[in-house]
Predict the 3D structure of the following.
Amino acid sequence: MLKHAYLILAHNEFIVLRSLVSCLDDERNDIFIHFDRKVKEIPEISVSRSRLFILKNRVRVFWGDFSMVEAEERLFEAAVANGPYSYYHLLSGVDLPIKSQDQIHDYFQRNAGKEFISFMDVSKAEIDYRMRYVHLFPKGFRRNPSFLYRLRGGIVLLQRGLLLKRNREVDLYKGSQWMSVTENMARLFIESKAWIKKVFYHTFIPDEFVFQTLCMRSSISESIHERSDEVSSNLRLINWSSGHWYVKDWSESDLPELENSPAFFARKFNGTDPDFLKAVMALSKRRAGDEVR
């Protein structure tokens, strides 16, 4: 039986990151961590049963920018070089598993070969805005309005007025960047680097389109596990109750939902309530007698 690879994008909340690594520390797993290059001091992370790889070749990551895809590429390249693995799980450093490793390995063994990638309905207008125009000055995507913010919007409007569109020939698909994929999908991703950069460089939030679009362009699309909803498709529980673009942190009052969810992973957490973190970690430590979906 092949191992699983956990690929983690980390940039803050290192108390949560250590909790995550502790939950994944299992002889059946290898763990790969990419720290945003903006992190000056890499926190000490230790394991006792897994192999742990801290990437040295790091990227300065900015939300909404192609740099997120580049960081994912570094993780997958490192993992594939140390593989093969049954599954590659892409996680954020503020995620936690809410099922045990016994449950996770059993489920993926029973569904071997399936790709756990989510797909979301998206309008043509959103695809055009995000993927078919050039977006400049990505470091300011999440900042308050400024000269560069307005200039970037003006450049998009100019392209729209001149009917200048890119990627016209590419069918584009959107979903969550967080996924669990097979060796085949992992290799397709890293072998497609040149095409990915050509299509997605200077687009807006490309990490939500790359894997979905790649998958649907290949025979791997026949192996998609589920497309009905996010939890069923990629086994991630995400709290969108804020009603905005950003994900809301889970808190102690959400513990019953986390405990009863069919998902395997939840995001996102913070380190302000150690007792709550311990309670969530306990969900991932349970062993025999627990039902899986």
User: Anything to note?
Assistant: The beta strands are 4-10, 29-35, 51-54, 87-92, 95-97, 180-181, 236-238, 265-267. The chain has two domains: 4-121+174-285, 124-161.
